[in-house]
Specification:
mainly alpha; two-stranded antiparallel sheet; 64% helix
């Protein structure tokens, strides 16, 4: 049976109900005094485009280091390539949640980060030297997870990894092709944002399905669902009756950054909620909109409840020892505690917040949260 991949989750999650395929006219919340245009401008100018630019820069730096490794296949150069790879993988966590507009066209999530990777398919592609990375069969044989496998292997010494590249020009080419595809896609996305799409995004100030606000809220939740399921829940055994699946962890082969990637993903989601830039500048965001709507939750404001839950979830995730593949075996209770708080955050962001804003969640995850 083919192993579970993010691709399967994406297929389930992206399925829309028939009623939500129509442009439903939602009742607009009372928000006439709130500067939606300013909020969208903050997102595009200070959050989205800068994050894509940073991701592009890290990919370009990774490509340069890889080219140096190809020119001189030494363990020292391999270590430098791995450092640049990790930096690029971390930066990617800050663009994955913007799968709308140009990113949706390029299908960033599935093309960049379908894991666990299919090592058998990768080996078959390398051995044959003939493959098409744009086909569905190769979605879990490329991107960051495939490069993770190629740069680290499983149970291999650094010298053994170097020898694999020394003895196979096809392996060298395969990694280069995976990297080039990501560079091409992110360049296309940035070009689109810096031209017509930026204006389109900023001027879509409604709350209806397909509006910029609707897409931000939906993709924020979509990403949190993936964090809950693919990054934590599936390895922890939440989908397999408690049978843990350490091999399904993100960055399984590097085996040093899986928890860090969860932290970065969660930080990015918090930044989106707050309208906070990569440099820490706090602009207009969803938090400000909720306050303008005077949205309440139990004994306090919904905004404060969400911010507090972000802090709780981040604290619980930070308590998980690296790597995740080991922690789910020796510290399952610690991982589960983080999972529980992530679920609580998801309920707030996916149910309470959209309800207050008049936003329709247009995807299904199939697990009822």
């Amino acid at each position: 049976m083919k192993k579970i991949t993010i691709l399967l989750i994406l297929v389930l999650a992206s399925t829309l109900t028939d009623c939500k395929k129509k442009k439903i006219a939602e009742e607009e919340p009372i928000d006439s005094s709130f500067d939606k245009s300013g909020m969208l401008n903050n997102y595009s100018s200070n959050v989205i485009i800068p994050n894509f630019q940073h991701s592009k820069n890290t990919l370009d730096s990774f490509a340069l280091a890889y080219n140096n490794f190809v020119a001189g296949k030494t363990t020292a150069n391999l270590l430098l390539v791995r450092q640049k790879f990790i930096t690029a993988y971390v930066a990617y966590q800050h663009i994955e949640s913007f799968e709308f507009g140009p990113s949706e066209t390029e299908i960033v999530r599935a093309n960049f980060n379908t894991f666990p990777t299919d090592s058998s398919q990768i080996k078959s592609n390398i051995n044959s030297g003939s493959y098409d990375l744009s086909t569905v069969i190769n979605l879990d044989a490329k991107g960051f997870p495939a490069i993770d496998y190629l740069l680290y292997g499983k149970g291999l010494t650094d010298n053994q990894v170097v020898d694999l590249f020394l003895n196979s020009s096809n392996r060298v080419t395969y990694l280069s092709n995976c990297l080039n595809e990501m560079q091409t896609k992110i360049n296309t996305i940035l070009s689109a944002w810096n031209s017509g799409y930026n204006s389109t995004f900023k001027h879509s100030t409604g709350s209806e399905i397909g509006s910029s606000l609707g897409m931000i809220v939906n993709q924020l939740n979509f990403e949190l669902d993936l964090l809950k399921n693919a990054k934590v829940g599936i390895p922890l055994g939440k989908k397999t009756l408690g049978i843990i699946m350490p091999q399904n962890c993100e960055a399984y082969y590097a085996n040093t950054i899986s928890v860090n990637l969860i932290q970065e993903c969660l930080l990015n989601l918090e930044n989106i909620y707050l309208g906070r830039s990569q440099t820490g500048n706090d602009g207009l965001g969803l938090d400000d909109y909720l306050d303008a709507l005077k949205s309440q939750h139990t004994s306090g404001t919904l905004n404060n409840t969400i911010k507090n839950q972000f802090n709780i979830a981040k604290t619980k995730v930070a308590a998980i020892p690296e790597p995740l593949s080991s922690s789910i075996q020796s510290n399952a209770a610690v991982v589960d505690a983080a999972y529980v708080e992530i679920v609580k955050l998801l309920v707030l962001l996916k149910t309470d917040m959209p309800s207050a804003m008049g936003i329709v969640i247009t995807y299904q995850d199939g697990d009822g949260d």
